[in-house]
């Protein structure tokens, strides 16, 4: 792995362009969304718009975008939510994924591969800048004509439309060669230091090899993979391990314009775990930041439904005695602030911790094989159960039950 200062220098060069009542381990977790006391906007008109789109999803697209931390980066929670929506309302494609492999991140439907020494990855998780793209990862070519291979996890004959989020100082060319040996290419026009989505590569099958004939100053931020048929549900999972809501402050000003290209009908913010583990968290600053973020989303996406997912239950001091001593110190406050701000902003709030059974309930989930031994993350079964609860909550809010 390159040394920290090397990546910083590389990123700087590119950006110069024009994360109490105890519940006994034997108690079963609460697993129905109906036990949660949700915050519901006073019949936000956007709910009816989204419900209508879902009912008509056989002939029009529905886009969901989820931002979050490691719970999202694993694409198990969001992956099951995607599967449930697509099973009911049609498969609209894969969504937005990082341009090159990201250690510790996976996608439920695709595998992104790249040969060694072709790309350097720079992450908003541990680099300081305000020039990252939507999603927080940029991939820098370090070889001539670097390539990326995108494979489906399960064999499929589905065809896709693929566009690249990119930045280019000089015009470059992006080429695609899929399993049917079909070749096609698009030009990545000079972007004057801004992140843009490329023209679409049409009728692409997986696996596909994407090759960038890069000029100096070309970088990639991700791929947006939609079904060739412009209908059904797409769910993009934009997660960064260890992230907090503040990670979005590192994204280039105007990143919401790139988000608009995804045309989200539902935007999900699933941060809070890493804030809850920070004993020095400035609660006033956090509330101000969350309020501003929701106001920005409301302004930039006035027709989208916005949903806050509260942090899941977790235990920080596993050897402490009593639930109050074991839980993260700030967890209750983070949930309280999210609930309050959601109500003020008239957006949805789903209390994940309450769905699990309340404070320290993760111990019971772990005893049943639904949570991992770290008592922070869930197993695949735990994420599936949580996604099912969220899905039913959303269907209820949308009047689709």
TrEMBL record:
The record, for InterPro entries, names: Ape1_N, SGNH_hydro, SGNH_hydro_sf
> Would the keyword Acetylation turn up in this protein's UniProt record?
no
**Annotated protein name in UniProt:** SGNH/GDSL hydrolase family protein
Domain SGNH hydrolase-type esterase, residue spans = 232-385
Where does the signal peptide begin and end?
Answer: 1-25
Q: Which CDD domains match?
A: SGNH_hydrolase_peri1 (cd01825)
Look up the domain of life of the source: Bacteria
| A single MF term (Gene Ontology) | hydrolase activity
Alphabetic keyword roster: Hydrolase, Signal
Annotated ranges, domain Peptidoglycan O-acetylesterase N-terminal: 92-207
**Segments forming a coiled coil:** none
